[in-house]
Amino acid sequence: MRMMIRRASGLILVAAAGLSPGSAQAGFYSGEALLESCTADRNAKDFFEKSYECVGYVAGAVDAFNTTREVNGLKSCIPADVTLNQLKGATVDYLRANPDKRSQSASALVFTATRQAWPCPKAKARSGVKKKRK
């Protein structure tokens, strides 16, 4: 009986620790973890796993951004002929150039990296006189 109480107490403690505000993150994956996957050593036994993890993550993040834009009636700013390798390259370049941001959410950093590499065209300002409302 005592052992069961200890186990239950331990499980409650672990669950409570997982719900504490200190453990919350903006994303599941940090920029540091993404950079590690995207720059895995070719001779490492987990190279292919890390490479696929990187490309899959970047592709999924970009698809999510594009879906959000589409739902809001906007087109993707990334040209249709951009390859997954180019998306990965832009992300890695950004992460290497911004080590101070690597603790942030990887998806937010992929978004920033791709927006920097392929900025959206500026909306054209409307010309003419504004109409007065009655």
From TrEMBL:
Q: Where does the secretion signal sit in this chain?
A: 1-26
Cross-referenced Pfam families: Rap1a (PF18602)
Gene3D superfamilies, alphabetically?
1.10.890.40
Which stretches make up the Rap1a immunity protein domain?
A: 30-120
Keywords, in A-Z order: Signal
Q: What is this protein called?
A: Rap1a immunity protein domain-containing protein
